[in-house]
Amino acid sequence: MHYSIVAADPAAHLFAVTLQIAAPAAVGQIVALPAWIPGSYMIREFARHIVQIRGESNGRTIPLKKLDKHSWQAAPCDGPLTLHYQVYAWDLSVRAAHLDQTHGFFNGTSVFLRVVGHENASHVVDIQRPQGAEYDQWRIATALPTLRAGRGAVGTYVAANYDELIDHPVEMGTFQLATFKAHGVPHEIAITGNVPNLDMVRLSADLKKICETQIAFFEPAGSKFARQAPMQRYVFLTLAVGDGYGGLEHRASTALICARADLPVKGQPECSDGYRTFLGLCSHEYFHTWNVKRIKPAAFAPYDLQVENYTSLLWLFEGFTSYYDDLMLFRCGLIDQAEYLKLVTKTINGVLLGSGRGKQSVAESSFDAWVKYYRQDENAPNAIVSYYTKGSLVALALDLTIRSETKNKKSLDDVMRVLWQKYGRDFYATNDTAGRGVTEAAVEALFDAVTGLKLKRFFDRYVRGTDDLPLEKLLASAGVTIADERKAVKPGLGARTTRGGAECKLLNVYEGGAAHRAGLSAGDVLMALDGVRVTANLDVIFGRYRVGDTVTVHAFRRDELLIFSVKLLADTTPQLGLNAMQGPDTAVATRNAWLAGRHSR
After folding, report:
1. What average pLDDT does this structure show over 315-332?
2. Range of the domain at 88
């Protein structure tokens, strides 16, 4: 299959794509654009962005019949079939495609039609910058293997099959570029956007530490594959904007979006919270190179990109990755122990905030990602649990449980390495990936086999069930105390608010809280409290009240003014804190081994 993609009209945000099919099906070739992109579990219907499409063969027009929302069938033709189509690209995210006068970006799932029946053929793609002198300095960043290099943003690339073709996003423009090697493997960082005084030297050095630590984690010294990365080259594609955050993993690259203020500044050696968060995002997406891009759930081997692919294992693939992303920052020396425990504290408090954790298990959350996690509404905290955040706590609890029960001879690290050796290392050895994914039953059996423990009760209660994890006990076994750090009981509304200008709007109303009991709803705009206009932060306003006081609240619901009598209840927002114990006892030794990734002999 031979594609050509041209940034044809940046002002209109249009990519022009040509697809040449040498041997189309005799009965009429079917082509389809994916309905979703791996790593983002929601049907997005990318075909809606195809503006127009036409077919031709040997100079003759070939009619195309639309079969469904994302598929076409060409009429039978005697020779090669060529399709010409335009893709509207105005989605400034890591999931789709974006083109304007400043840069171009696309994921293959948004622009490359799949030729049904020819998915395992080699796929070649020519990429071209826009026409005009103002685009002469544009260049290309992608992990796609190069077939023929061109000048500037022109080049020809090749993929072994369609799955590989769509797993390499492409950035074109005048980005800042830096390179480094991690255990001998070339890595590139392309930063798109206006970022003055960007410290690329520091960013490269910090990412090198993360990458080398993760490579050595899965392929430790002393093994046949010691410190061997699963890719020949890796690219971090980063779009810096005024305010943004997100990432999407690929087999040899990641697409990232961040706030420019989160990137390091020359001459400023301190590590801001924003930069630490960005490094955590990079660590998360890089860990996916192993966990989900190669170690996959059976439902993803292979993907069916036209419909939902259901699995109950996202708590492992996203949750465990969320556990290791920050842990790797500690293990590579970018954060200290206190900073790491602070990040764990934030996750615990976030999970405890919503009552949905008692109604939906992480296994159910994984399965329902398509309709619940990725389509959250104002009631989400009361109805669902995140397989990212609670999944990371499941990983923490499993790690500490395994270390405690085996006297620190085994850990979650061992399980991850065996998953890699059994399911991930050879995943792309051939084009046919069917049957190479791991099933729910196989995951649990592997945990028992690697650790020598019987963990069914743990899985029943905390993975398939909705019990809160016994973190206080487990953390104590690792020399970490957990305690409520509230300084005093204070009144609260039991809601999350946002301010826009002078408005104070309720975003979420937590089940059982004062707002819920009084009848306030998400979307209500608070106007006055006891006759005084709501202009300040609610915490400041409630500083004049006590738990149990009744206040009169005036609020707009849509365009109607309503009056509520609200009895203020104690603010139950979780404020737990983690603190490391001091001393040379066994618990402290366990903590040091856990954080460093060591075992007892």
Report:
1. 98
2. 2-173
